[in-house]
Amino acid sequence: MNARPIHFLLVEDDDGHADLVNLAMNENRVTNTLDRVCDGAEALAYVHARAPFADRQRPDVILLDLKLPKVDGLDVLAQLKADRGLRTIPVVILTTSAMEADRTKAYTRHANSYLVKPVDFTQFHTMIRDLNLYWSVWNQPPKNEC
């Protein structure tokens, strides 16, 4: 099991969805942290520690929406996985799209997981709780960054 808190980066343009993710993670009583950016350009600036994110903590897991302003989520994913310094960060697609084409594109670009946001609040809350616990407790990341 992981001995340290996990730092999540949420890339989500919908304030309501972001609030639900934050609420579900906070209710788990796990000491994980969550930062949020609102578009693909901010996500790339964040992971590359560019202004205004120069002092940011490197994320352990990225929760990435697909339909984003400025830079699409699939483009963000492709850029993350093409970068040797970033490709080991797990990327979980967290989207409303259940389209097979989107799922295939995400996995082709090396997404680590693809989750469709449930419409039902209770199911959404349960999914985020389980996601948080999986990455916090059960997942075994490499000890050294690649």
Number of helices: 5
Residue stretches low in confidence (pLDDT < 50, at least 5 long) are: none
Which architecture per CATH? 3-Layer(aba) Sandwich
In the CATH hierarchy, what is the class? Alpha Beta
Can you identify the CATH superfamily?
A: Response regulator
The global form is globular
Strands, total number? 5
Beta content: 15-25%
Helix content: 25-40%
Q: What composes the largest sheet?
A: 5 strands, parallel
Strand order of the largest sheet: 2-1-3-4-5
Mean pLDDT metric: 90
Give the structural class. Answer: alpha/beta
The total number of structural domains is 1
Oligomer: single chain
Give the SSE order as H and E letters: EHEHEHEHEH
Keywords:
five-stranded parallel sheet; 146 residues; alpha/beta; Rossmann fold; 5 strands
Structure, explained:
With 146 residues, the protein is α/β, with parallel strands linked by helices. The chain has a single domain, classed as Rossmann fold, CATH 3.40.50.2300. The protein has 5 helices and 5 strands. The protein has a 5-stranded parallel β-sheet, with helices on both faces. β1, α1 and β2 form a beta-alpha-beta unit. The two termini are 21 Å apart.
Short description:
It is built from 5 helices and 5 strands, in the order βαβαβαβαβα. The chain is of the alpha/beta class.
